[in-house]
Amino acid sequence: MPPFMKVAGCGRGKVLSPDEFRKIKEHIHFKYQVFFDIMWHTGCRVSECCKLRFVDVVNGTLVIRKGNTKGKSETREIPIPDDLISRINRLPQVNGFMFSGMGGNGHITRFTIDKVLRNACKESGLSGVSTHSFRRTTITQLSRNSVSLRVIQKISGHRNLNVLQNYVDVDEQEVMLALQTRWN
Known about the structure:
By secondary structure, this protein is mainly alpha-helical. The chain has helices at 18-25, 30-42, 46-50, 82-89, 110-124, 132-144, 149-156, 161-165, 172-183, and strands spanning 57-58, 61-64, 76-79.
């Protein structure tokens, strides 16, 4: 088991591979697939995704309003793929929220999303996964693709680069490759 992996609610959520993400999606309803696709593509927090409204998709971007962010300090606009926009548009429009709560009142809760994810992980045999895994995965993948930390900071909404760096997962193969490259 990787160090610091989430166990019984403690530690860091696992960074997911695309194959693990596909396995999770095989065990969930379309509505939740779209929910996790948004988190996968944007790195937003589960609470931010819960509060998204249909009007938050503007000109190919997903707008995360500052009132829905952790620090409530800055609105973020994150480009999203056209196929994700088309799937968002297929969601039922009940009360303006992309993901309405029980009986159409308000928005879905992070507790509901957590339960859906736990059940899907159990069915697919995955452990160490949490709703925060999607945020860590997005940030780690951006870093592995040589995106600067300042750009990742703008996408993720982190105010502090030191905190952001805690989200970037480094595995043994990356360390070995870096050292091999250094000596060649």
